[in-house]
Amino acid sequence: MTTTTHDAHTDTPAGRAPAPRPAAGRVSPTGEALRRALDGRYHDLKQRWRDTISAADVVRDPTWDLETAREWALAQMVSLVERGHLVAGFPAALGGIGNQADSVAQFEMLALGDLSLTIKSGVQHGLFGGAINNLGTQWHHETYLPGTMDCSITGCFAMTELGHGSDVQSLETTITYLPDTDEFEVDSPTPTARKAYIGNAAKDGKWAAVFGQLLVAGENQGVHVAMVRIREEDLTPAAGVTIGDQGHKGGLLGVDNGTLAFDHVRIPRRQLLNRYGGVNDEGVYESAIASKNARFFTMLGTLVRGRICVGGGAASAARKALSIATRYATKRTQFRAPGLGEEIRLLDYQTHQRKLLPNIAKAYAYGFAMNELMDQLQRVTDAAGSDPKASRELESRAAAMKAVLTRWANDTIQVCREACGGAGYMSENGLTMLRQDADVFATFEGDNTVLLQLVAKSLLQGYKQTWGDMDLRGTAQATARMVGETVLERTTARAVIDRLVASAARRPESAQLTSRGWHVQMFEDRERHTLEGLAKRMRAAGKASTEDSFTAINACQEHMLAAARAHTDRVVLEAFIAGIEAVGDPYVKSVLIQVCDLYALTVLEENKGWLLEHERIDSTRAKAISQQVLDLSARLSHQAIPLVEGLGANEEWLNSAILR
Amino acid sequence: MTTTTHDAHTDTPAGRAPAPRPAAGRVSPTGEALRRALDGRYHDLKQRWRDTISAADVVRDPTWDLETAREWALAQMVSLVERGHLVAGFPAALGGIGNQADSVAQFEMLALGDLSLTIKSGVQHGLFGGAINNLGTQWHHETYLPGTMDCSITGCFAMTELGHGSDVQSLETTITYLPDTDEFEVDSPTPTARKAYIGNAAKDGKWAAVFGQLLVAGENQGVHVAMVRIREEDLTPAAGVTIGDQGHKGGLLGVDNGTLAFDHVRIPRRQLLNRYGGVNDEGVYESAIASKNARFFTMLGTLVRGRICVGGGAASAARKALSIATRYATKRTQFRAPGLGEEIRLLDYQTHQRKLLPNIAKAYAYGFAMNELMDQLQRVTDAAGSDPKASRELESRAAAMKAVLTRWANDTIQVCREACGGAGYMSENGLTMLRQDADVFATFEGDNTVLLQLVAKSLLQGYKQTWGDMDLRGTAQATARMVGETVLERTTARAVIDRLVASAARRPESAQLTSRGWHVQMFEDRERHTLEGLAKRMRAAGKASTEDSFTAINACQEHMLAAARAHTDRVVLEAFIAGIEAVGDPYVKSVLIQVCDLYALTVLEENKGWLLEHERIDSTRAKAISQQVLDLSARLSHQAIPLVEGLGANEEWLNSAILR
């Protein structure tokens, strides 16, 4: 095995003239081309970010205490905004770009720098600004958005309560209409109604978009959102608002999470964000959406971007960790080759290749899938509600990607930390803070276990219903009425994939391990079978009596997760295939084809038990898959540096002492 | 499904008179009995610890900065020593107990409190004190041990260097004998020779046990250890010693890790720890062990306790996390039961049971296996080198358990963090600091990937050779001479297990999923087959030329890990079986039998791919195993509180705001 890393662009026999090796911080030609491919249609935006954002802008010192980290995050956010960043998602008329997909791409780039800063701006511009933008009407936009963009109006997204996190429909906060004064009264009637884990609340927020049950003339119209002042301009708490500081957390020290409680706080009627429902001049509730449930989920649906950002941000953190650990593994040696005496590079060990390369392959796969998801977000936004099925599909996809990407990111950052040994544990090397900051991505914007169940639910319903239109018992009963077999809809690159599958079907006897058509078949098979099995179980559960209903549906939970994961894997593979199709450069394409092989085989290996259990593969093939994962990891390890360059982080952002 | 937790001791129909429910902080009768069973022969020691150690002794505030955490850890260590704790491992003549197993048990208990404090004392008493105790002779014991015990002589274990962590034999530090002055000169000849990640170095240590190549009359006698003064009594660095502070880490803030470099530092000859080799009055090197390699590994072998402690300490951290998350899951509700309206406890959800109960089962399995390992440590210590095979088996077992337990601990603490949602991320709830502190357990005292390879190597050699006697190429070549099939030696409870296996073999057609004999067969089969497969590969690799040797052996790495894991799983199962045998109380026994079922089936499920691939089970059985894991998790969830009480942490040590 050779121990030199070589950039294939410089030594491909058929290739171009040898390029000089890039100087420190410079990117190799292959790395550059991979970057362009993975950035896709967001390349210009992302490259602009790489060209203009320095380490000083986005690198946080991991040793800072809570107070310093908080001050830094606020100051950096303001500074980036002043230079025109972070506001892509706002209307062009106000100085933004009005493009949702671009705002996600910006979030991904910021997350390659620092996650505290990313979440600080995510709360301010994404969640708080997004609530106003999506749930408010013209007056709200004019009144609040300019200040939200430039951070003079700092705000919180006050949804979660101590008693209810995942179950938003059960929030206890009330927003009661008072006809006498034409006001609303915002109140936290119980200790568990206190808003909790709210970013921007502990220190900086002046306003909050408060989620609560809207009560008008004694009737509960479901959860709505009102703009409530929580601090005066001098930052003292507003009257009736009790603010708590949740202090030290497992990470994200730059984000000031806190609690908010409201004691009969009165606000003018127009402060209710009333795009989907509000109280008219006659003091009567009115909404274009009759069903409370549908209204609630339509409102939540407009906030889907936050969930997409969290998945993408977590993936960025994993990309950064992979960039650090892989670069280190090409430099660090340990133990001598038996009989030879030279010390071996970490990356030349099989176990080390097995840790890093399959995860680099996943980073590419998830990157292409994020691009698809961002495109989808923009299409749905542009359609402005005219395609409800597309909206529901987007929500389901966002939940699926968020759950899968955050899980993978946490696991991968940990692998990278350990792959750097003791050095990986020293804060100055950049991995431990990344791990600590990314941790909570598994929880916020929806607990992963809950999200995967929502995905399974919408798959069972074929996106026919919004999540809220049916509880699980309703879903089970509706499933009982569903007929026959599941037809999976390809999510992208339909023609290409049809062709691949057809070609694999024509020559099943010769099906190679690296046949993309065969991969797609296996991924689809697993999804279809898991989903059909779930539907069968849910049908049975739907027949249970009310008393036994919980137990019956509860017994399907693990199957729901399995179906959601199988679905997500398939969607990601399709996105990878589509991403490769769009690449022009034949050499880069050939590298990405191998990376996609490694992704597909890694997922198949992870699901080897299922594939054998359901007789999709035999023992010989199962063993061959594992061997192929090792072989591909070894082969691609020679391209490790260009591959991590392609993940898109400027080297200086890595902020890792071991790489200096 | 019932939503009340009940202690079966109070409601077993056949059972005793109902006991009153224990008051806060009190333990239920079943919990108490499980504790006794899991503590095993260490019960008295552990119960004494629970009776005397308060939260104030061992609970650290997670918000403290580096300086405060370091000061606290030192002060608490001294305070515990003053009260007679932490010194069990030292000779009875000096005020210890002289019992190695007891010192591990003490380490496990301390780790239920705080890991910084545990590692601080682990460095001072375990590593530094252990080096003097095991590698020194009478003068060293008399001179250094009393002060080491009472912490007036604070010390470092200066083994790892920047350039060499896992590869201790390649250390660059030199200890050169100077005949003219009858001294040694300790030197760091290169930047990579700098000692790194050394606990007690950055702030508190006055002495260091320094590992370096011993050079006498121009000949390198291999790595030896010398006592070197690194700070004066006023804590200024000693002449010739450069000390660096490695500052902030991913966790363990209470431990002051630093670097040490030596510039031709001279020490009197007697400061070499010379039990296994040193320079005599004639200035000539002498050792009872002729082979340098054997000498080195004999010396390292005496330090095996540290590795055992790390595995046990990590498991304690996981026990604590499981105690927090499980207790929370019995209190916290979320979402309503469809059709009914009452909110459901987290622990009543299938997905939540699946997260916690199999890990509780593993906590018991690993606890019983730790007890066996501690017994084994004591036997080997008592044998004082008279049974070399037993020593090598102990070293292999220690490495195996360290790698498997630390991996499991990190994964499990993370599962527990996420199982508590946003609350799990708040430092005040105790989980994030636990996760951060336990992280590095995967790395220190031996990188897990390296350790598992050592385990595989000694399995291949049947404990016939010390690790150091052969490099991997030598192992491969020796394997080539090995004949025939592997006979696994049962590690404990041989008669019982023989009987179980024989009974399962007589009735294979009726083999139930919960047949312990069948479990043992499956675990043994997996180990034997994996090991034989590895031997075959290694035999082939042993025939490669010198040039191809690395590549050939490298291709066996993943198989080495698989064999080591299979072996460890089997050893753990056997220890669990032996542990249950020793329990008298029939009710507690019946609970533990179910817990052992869940452990065995969880491991079988994790290895479902392998079992199917090698036709040990068919599809029907594979599915039945998964279902049984869910069913057992649900059944045992009704005993969740007594089960976590049995894990042995005083409730007040949990230091978790969500439980108050």
Automatic annotation (TrEMBL), chains A, B:
Compartments where located: Peroxisome
Domain of life: Bacteria
Acyl-CoA dehydrogenase/oxidase N-terminal domain: residues covered: 64-148
Acyl-CoA oxidase C-terminal domain span: 520-658
A single MF term (Gene Ontology): fatty acid binding
Keyword Glycoprotein attributed: no
Alphabetical UniProt keywords: FAD, Fatty acid metabolism, Flavoprotein, Lipid metabolism, Oxidoreductase, Peroxisome
Pfam families reported for this sequence: ACOX, ACOX_C_alpha1, Acyl-CoA_dh_M, Acyl-CoA_dh_N
Ranges of Low complexity composition bias in the record: 11-26
Residue span(s) of domain Acyl-CoA oxidase C-alpha1: 301-460
Region annotated Disordered, chain positions: 1-30
InterPro entries: ACOX_C_alpha1, Acyl-CoA_Oxase/DH_mid-dom, Acyl-CoA_Oxase/DH_mid-dom_sf, Acyl-CoA_oxidase, Acyl-CoA_oxidase_C, AcylCo_DH-like_C, AcylCoA_DH/ox_N, AcylCoA_DH/ox_N_sf
GO terms, biological process: fatty acid beta-oxidation using acyl-CoA oxidase; lipid homeostasis
Domain Acyl-CoA oxidase/dehydrogenase middle as annotated: residue spans: 156-265
EC number: 1.3.3.6
Cofactor field: FAD
Coiled-coil annotated residue ranges, if any: none
Assigned protein family: Belongs to the acyl-CoA oxidase family.
UniProt protein name: acyl-CoA oxidase
Organism the protein comes from: Propioniciclava coleopterorum
